[in-house]
C-alpha cells in the first residue's frame, strides 16, 4: 500500500504492518475525540514515525498513486479531524 505523508513523500507499506498502524490510528482518533491536545500530538507523531519505520520510502521522482494520505507532523487537531473518515486515517 502506498501512503503519502503530506509534505514528505510516499512510503510503501506492507499489508502485514497495517494492524499495528490501525492500533495507532485508533489511539490518535480517541485523543481527538477527547480533545486532548498533548495526547493527540504524541499519537500523531507515533503513527507517522511507525509508518516511516516499517515502510520503504519511494524515490522523489516516483509517480505512484497514493492509497492513503496522512497529515504532516505539524498538523492541527482540527486539520486531522477533517481528514478522518469512518475508519480513521487508515481503513481496516
UniProtKB/TrEMBL annotation:
Task: Report which superkingdom the organism of origin falls in.
Answer: Bacteria
Q: Where is the PspA-associated domain?
A: 1-92
Question: What protein am I looking at?
Answer: PspA-associated domain-containing protein
- Per the UniProt record, the source organism is Streptosporangium vulgare
Amino acid at each position: 500500500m502506498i501512503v503519502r505523508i503530506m509534505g514528505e513523500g510516499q512510503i510503501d507499506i506492507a499489508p502485514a504492518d497495517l494492524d499495528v498502524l490501525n492500533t495507532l490510528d485508533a489511539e490518535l482518533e480517541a485523543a481527538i475525540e477527547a480533545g486532548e491536545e498533548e495526547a493527540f500530538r504524541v499519537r500523531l507523531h507515533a503513527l507517522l514515525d511507525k509508518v516511516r519505520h516499517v515502510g520503504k520510502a519511494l524515490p522523489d521522482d516516483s509517480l505512484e498513486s497514493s492509497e492513503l494520505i496522512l497529515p504532516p507532523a505539524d498538523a492541527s487537531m482540527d486539520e486531522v479531524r477533517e481528514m478522518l473518515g469512518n475508519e480513521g486515517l487508515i481503513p481496516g
